[in-house]
Amino acid sequence: MSADGAPPFLSEALVLLAATVVAVPLAKRLGLGSVVGYLAAGAAIGPFGFGVMASGEEMLPVAELGVVLLLFVIGLELDPQKLWRMKRDIFGLGTAQVLFTGLSLYAAFYYTGYSVRTALVAGFGLALSSTAFALQILQERGQLSAPYGQRAFSILLLQDIAIVPLLAMVTILTPFSNGEAGPAVWMEVLTIVAAIGAVVVAGRYLASPLFAILAASHAREVMLAAALLVALGSAGLMHAVGVSMALGAFLAGVLLAESSFKHVLEADIEPFRSLLMGLFFAAIGMSLDFVLLVDNIALIIMGVTGVMLIKGIFLWALTRGSGSSNSDAMRIAVTLPQGGEFAFVLFTAAVSNRVMPYQTANLLNSIVILSMLLTPLACLLLDYVAARLKARGVENPMIETFEEATPTVLVVGFGRFGMMVAQILTAEGLEVRAIDVTPERIAYARRLGYKVYYGDATRPDVMAAAGAGKAALIAMCVEDDRVMGRAVEVVRDGFPQALIFCRATDRAHALELERQGVDYQIRETFESSLAFGKAALESLGIPPERIEEIEEDVRRRDEERLAIQLKDGILAGSDRLHGITPRRRITDRAVVPSVETSDDPVVAPVKGQDAAKV
After folding, report:
1. 3-state DSSP: the chain helix, strand, coil percent, rounded to 5?
2. The three-state (H, E, C) secondary structure of 495-532, written as one string
3. Name one Pfam family in it (predicted).
4. In the chain, what is the greatest distance between 2 CA atoms, to the nearest angstrom?
5. Could you give the CA distance from residue 178 to residue 546 in angstroms, rounded to a whole number?
6. Cα–Cα distance, 282 to 560 (Å, whole number)
7. Which of 131, 186, 495, 573 is in Cβ range 3.0-4.6 Å of 468 for a Cys bridge?
């Protein structure tokens, strides 16, 4: 506690929160995105702005956990098979981008008077884009799963991997370093491999059983603690052996991508990720030195312009040449031209190892920050040009075309009823996702070949993570009436685009669902009861034509009774339960109902309270 009794950093936290509450909505209102708002808030309250906060350096190590959690969440969305399918983009396109851009920027720095060592570090450091910044833009625009979003992510992933050899390059470039590998380097490589193996084993064989045990306890806070333990534990292990923390968290996320708990993990971690990411960008904004910027304005403007143009040209050319459409190549070029957070790490290491002067590192950091600020403007400029061309009727190569998407259905509750619904839907080739809250049921469904995930349908964040925002239809197949009622409200409020189909447990539940305005409901035993009764009539020798007449009449009377009950209460319309189905007399001109005869077998009607439950 401080001297006045307030917790440490309370005043700084209040100032930061106030600045972001003002700057972020304003930036989003202007179309610049939340990242620019956080950067502007940090710059305003930082030591080079109004000076309310002394420095962002103390906050940055904690804020970097936001990048770690971001990569963990991204990993959850990529199963190992999908990641393997992306190998060509990751190791081919990504490696080409880093090499071509890095060498071109190296040449630019070298021929403007910088030493070989400084030019190498500066060129390859600026070749790295901001994973946190670019992914935030893609997520805000809803384009991370688009083809160009996936290719952009592949490039970013390779850049995160590239920081390891680049840091080794700094060590080799250190004065008095002979550049020899030696036994110590090989031992470091073996340590990294062992750490990766430990993460793989833990993620594949230990994490899912642990979450199953915790889910059975129904303690949400323990599940949250376990999710943070997995994400931060894997990141910490990688950091301990000299590998990027974000890369370690991403690997853990990929290994849990096929786990039945992926959606609840994503929903639990999302608030922490969002808050820490905002803190990260604010800390970056605090480091923008306006005095240095003004004193070297011409040099910094040339640097920002050159970096963004060179990176943009190579990004467009490489993605276009490797199969992307012109639209996708342009979007990647304006999404990834900025410098990245790993450049700060590389430049700091270069200064510590006397590879680069401190003043040069500060200039390069300013170039990185300004390139981040200008990236949303580049995206807005591309959108503006595309809109103008479209308005003039010009065939626009920058506007994406989308193939017809397969409808997605989210099944909530995967018992016998939900499983049969999924079987019918998948028989048509529809994409079906399913969630349930019973670990045993999930495990059984997975043994049968279904991909079912752990998730509570009454939580909007879990439903969003499970894909409710993209679902054309949500099938509510849960047994608990109260849970279904709350889940229907969640879908109606947060995902109005989806049709809601519900399994009703009885007639009273069906009436309640009708009042909630669901698109379709059916009592779980209605169709099976009709099938049972039809089979009984058939076994008693009733002709098929007569059975069909009875079924149509019973369905009609049931609909009429339901409409009356919605208006007058559960006991109303009981007269619709009784009566003999009129027979049809076929004439040359029409089908005429005839009067019933006493020979028809009549089952004694059910009366009283039980009739209302049928």
Report:
1. 65, 5, 30
2. CCCCEEEEEECCHHHHHHHHHHCCCEEEECCHHHHHHH
3. TrkA_N
4. 112
5. 97
6. 62
7. 495
Q: Are 255 and 261 in contact (CB under 8 A)?
A: no
Kindly list the distances between the CA atom of residue 416 and the CA atoms of 419, 420, 422, 473, 479, in Å, as whole numbers in the listed order: 5, 6, 10, 19, 11
Rounded-to-10 torsion of CA 494, 503, 512, 437: -60
Q: What is the pLDDT of residue 488?
A: 93
Q: Is the dihedral of CA 122, 125, 128, 133 positive or negative?
A: negative
Model confidence pTM above 0.85:
no
> Distance between terminal CA atoms of the chain?
66
CA angle 202, 204, 205 (to 5 degrees): 70
Query: For residue 603, what pLDDT is reported?
Result: 40
* Nearest of 431, 435, 457 to residue 445 by alpha carbon: 435
DSSP track, 138-198: HHHTT-TTSHHHHHHHHHHHHHHHHHHHHHHHHHHHSTT-----HHHHHHHHHHHHHHHHH
Structure tokens given for 441: 């049921």
Question: Which CA distances in Å does 252 have to 237, 380, 389?
Answer: 11, 35, 44
- Taking each helix axis as running N to C, give the angle between helix 544-568 and helix 507-516, from 0 to 180 degrees, rounded to the nearest 10: 60
H-helix or E-strand spanning residue 94: helix 94-110
CA atoms within 13 A on the CB side of 13: 7
Residue type, 283: A
User: Residue 608 has what DSSP assignment?
Assistant: G
C-alpha separations of 347 from 118, 354, 368 in Å: 10, 10, 11
Q: Do 376 and 33 meet the contact criterion of CB atoms below 8 Å apart? A: yes
SS3 412: strand
Closest by CA to 60, choosing from 345, 359, 376, is: 345
- DSSP at 202: I
Taking the CB of residue 222, how many other CB atoms lie within 10 A of it? 13
State whether residue 214 is helix, strand or coil: helix
CA-wise closest residue to 125 among 366, 343, 350: 343
The amino acid at residue 481 is D
pLDDT recorded at residue 124: 94
Tell me whether residue 607 is exposed, middle or buried, using C-beta atoms within 10 angstroms of its C-beta: 0 to 12, 13 to 18, 19 or more.
Answer: exposed
Q: What is the pLDDT of residue 455?
A: 85
Residue 119's identity, in one-letter code, is A
Task: Compute the distance between CA of residue 83 and CA of residue 95 in angstroms, rounded to an integer.
Answer: 16
Residue reference for tokens 């809250």: 437
Q: Report the alpha-carbon distance of residue 33 to residue 377 in Å, rounded.
A: 10
Beta-strand relationship, 591-594 and 583-586: antiparallel
Joined together, the tokens standing for residue 289 give 């030195």
Alpha-carbon gap, residue 329 to 17, rounded angstroms: 37
Identify the structural domains of the chain with CATH numbers, from first to last.
11-391 (1.20.1530.20), 408-524 (3.40.50.720), 527-613 (no CATH)
Cα–Cα separations (whole angstroms), residue 377 to 144, 315, 335, 374: 19, 18, 10, 5
Q: Rg for the chain (alpha carbons), in Å?
A: 31
Residues of the chain with pLDDT under 70: 1-9, 49, 51, 54-60, 79, 164, 176-186, 188-189, 244, 389-407, 577-578, 584-614
